[in-house]
Design a protein that fits this description.
alpha+beta; Uridine Diphospho-n-acetylenolpyruvylglucosamine Reductase, domain 2; Uridine Diphospho-n-acetylenolpyruvylglucosamine Reductase, domain 3; Alpha-Beta Plaits; 4-stranded mixed β-sheet; 33% helix; 22% strand; binds (2R)-2-hydroxypentanedioic acid; binds zinc ion
């Protein structure tokens, strides 16, 4: 059967870039966790901003729901279609502008992957402040839409902090271009900041003007095993004084066991007990001595230190391979939460019994970005559509003054619980913005709002 909207989109982007066959669509219809699926009406892959705008215009005219998608590495079902939504993939928006080496800035297309952005910056003597494990697939557009965080937030902030300008297509197909390339620009509402974290509900991000950071050529990585989370939190307090501190990640023995089994790695230490902290310092000059001095003030059970890349990568693997090791065991519930550091110990003590009460036999695996108060509570052993583990964890988080999403967004996964940590006034203000910018509710209608 012909679909007039599909025909119109094919006229805009060229027929080969409209995917209708189930096998061509499949990679766009399921999120990385495997927990969220949809069925797209079709997938459209525009090559430039004009084609994005014309595609958005076509969907708005047809009142067809449109789901913007980048690398589809999200973990909350925010980039998969509902039944019959059009998926607009930005992956062909691959432009890499010249690096402004004096200012440390660059403009890139929304479909550029984090890895390609970093390589582009490094080749010009600069680096990018956000880094995360899915760097090979995650795109700039998706990272902006989710305000992605990752492993260097404590030093550089999340994606929103890197944004100096944005280009985006609104629901009525008008193009916003706020690309002033100015570090100081107080002229009203901060549109790039608003679109960061808007999860594709307000506009389709097509390009961004990004702040770069100086390359830090010297790095040292330490993996510590500490007796308790309290000891780990005390360590964070001491480490924060280091000007070269770049990352402080946390994980636990059950995660290490899983990673070792899945990736065929030797355990890092003979005793698999307590809490693991992965600490990285980086700077223009070798930060090893600075880190070593700080470690003398910290009480830990075991340690391993590496300064060369292979050794550092070996230590990082215990942390970064958690996600894939967990997925290899089954479809997890991914509960990315943040807590005041003062409540972190109480949370980790209470979350396991709370989950056991909710779903007997559920297997929690915790890891995350300790200095940011951000834990990834992954739960195995519950059916994908069983919401009891999510409910138990989010209620506990809310009761401790935390947030039900630290860095992954709300997506489809967490809509139901948004009211736990955002007030009715907050949600009404967000709805008013949505209504003003997307009055027909075309853009990613299935996500964010309860
Ligand atoms: C990470 O920190 C990502 O590695 C993914 O945010 C977390 O898999 C997860 O739950
Ligand atoms: Zn994370």
């Amino acid at each position: 059967m012909t679909d007039p909207l599909r025909e119109r989109c094919a006229a805009i982007v060229g027929a080969p870039h409209v995917l209708s066959d189930p096998e061509d669509r499949a990679g766009y219809e399921t999120d990385w966790t495997g927990r969220f699926h949809g069925v797209a009406r079709f997938v459209v892959r525009p090559a430039n901003t004009d084609e994005v705008a014309a595609t958005v215009r076509a969907c708005t005219d047809a009142r067809a729901a449109l789901v913007p998608q980048g690398g589809n590495t999200g973990l909350v079902g925010g980039s998969v279609p509902g039944h019959g939504d059009v998926v607009l993939s930005v992956r062909r928006l691959q432009a890499l502008g010249p690096v402004d080496t004096v200012a440390g800035e660059v403009t890139v297309g929304a479909g550029v992957t984090l890895e390609d952005l970093r390589n582009h910056a490094l080749a010009a003597g600069w680096d990018f402040g956000v880094d995360l494990a899915s760097r090979g697939s995650a795109t700039v557009g998706g990272m902006i839409a989710t305000n992605a965080g990752g492993i260097r937030v404590l030093r550089h902030g999340p994606m929103r902090s890197q944004l100096l300008g944005i280009e985006a297509v609104l629901a009525d197909a008008r193009v916003i271009r706020r690309m002033p390339g100015l570090k100081k620009d107080n002229t009203g509402y901060d549109i790039p900041g608003l679109l960061a974290g808007s999860e594709g509900t307000l506009a389709v991000v097509t390009a961004a003007h990004l702040r770069l950071t100086p390359i830090k050529p010297s790095r040292v990585t330490a993996l510590l095993r500490l007796a308790t989370l309290r000891a780990a939190l005390r360590a964070v307090q001491s480490l924060r004084a280091l000007s070269s501190l770049d990352a402080v990640e946390v994980f636990f023995p059950e995660g290490v066991a899983l990673v070792c089994r899945h990736a065929g790695l030797e355990p890092p230490f003979a005793t698999p007990d307590g809490v693991y902290l992965l600490v990285e310092c980086a700077g223009q000059h070798d930060p090893t001595e600075e880190l070593a001095a700080a470690l003398e003030t910290i009480s830990f059970e075991d340690s391993a230190i590496a300064t060369e890349r292979p050794g550092r990568e070996r230590l990082w693997a215990y942390r970064e391979r958690h996600t894939e090791a967990i997925n290899a065991e089954g479809v997890p519930h991914k509960l990315d939460v943040s807590l005041p550091l003062a409540r972190m110990e109480e949370f980790t003590a209470r979350v396991r019994p709370a989950l056991e009460d909710a779903v007997p036999g559920a297997r929690p695996i915790l890891f995350g970005h300790l200095a940011d108060g951000n834990l990834h509570v992954n739960v195995l052993g519950a059916e994908p559509d069983d919401e009891r583990p999510d409910d138990a964890v989010f209620r506990l988080v809310a009761s401790l003054g935390g947030s039900i999403s630290a860095e992954h967004g709300i997506g489809r996964a967490k809509r139901r619980w948004l009211t736990l940590t955002r007030s009715p006034e907050d949600i009404a203000a967000m709805r008013a913005i949505k209504q003003a910018l997307d009055p027909h509710g075309i853009l990613n209608p299935g996500v964010l709002f309860p």
